[in-house]
Amino acid sequence: MAGYGFRDRPSDGKETGLYAKALALEDTHGKRLVIVTFDLSTVPRALRGSLQKRSAETYQLPPEGLLLNASHTHSGPEQSGRRMAEAADSRRAKLAAEYSQQLEEKLHTLIGQSLAKLEHARLGYAHARAGFAMNRRLPAPQGFVNKDNPDGPVDHAAPVLRVTGADGGLRAVLFGYACHNTTLSLYPWNADYAGYAQEYVQAAHPGVVALFMSGCGGDQNPYPRRTANRRQHSTLAKIGAGQQNPPRMSSSIPPSTPGKVWQPPAPEDLAPELPAYEILGLLGRGGMGAVYKAR
After folding, report:
1. 113: closest CA among 59, 168, 174?
2. Predicted model pTM
3. N or C terminus: which one in the chain shows less Cβ crowding within 10 Å?
């Protein structure tokens, strides 16, 4: 499996499917772009190079017309890197190589299928916020260490691209977030929060294709971690589904009363909802909510 270095055996099952999806766009001047997203850890250089070459030959798609984006789930199959090198003579290395070849063929076919289904459409853009990402670069005497840093810079933006057909019906939703897909660290295949969020959007809009694009989240981790946390999955998914008001963290925190100024909950009131953290205090508040310092 790709991602965590501590794993010492192959996957032992499946919790969610791992999908590749494509969105093909063409403007009124005939310029085309195909966005391919998939529930894997990386886009290997060899895969990008081969698909770029084949797409130019088969579909006349220029290099700048092909965008490949991996969700960076750490619960998907290994395609290249240390584990394959260490197992160069093993059956697992052979299976990984076979998988990589099959993946390329499927992605090449998917690109062609998306281009063959072009139809009149309208694009719409919006963005919202999802607050479960936290900076993971903590300053230390020896430099930065990979550890929770609630005071570090973070990008909570969740951009959304909406595709509607000529009849006004919703066809596809492409949404993104800049954060590692590392909520889970178990051994079954799992698309992590990005996969659950896509499932949520598609369930809310039957027949619609939901795609997730990973942003620049190398220094951001999801919190809480190590559990299938439905709160963060549904928060990001409701943004992708176009629902303006994400759910509250917990019904135990009293809702605001019309006509009164909302007051952020006290640290002691939040403590039962976030047992993995020591909440040190309230840093500030604003129109989008409140920010707390914790460790």
Report:
1. 59
2. 0.75
3. C
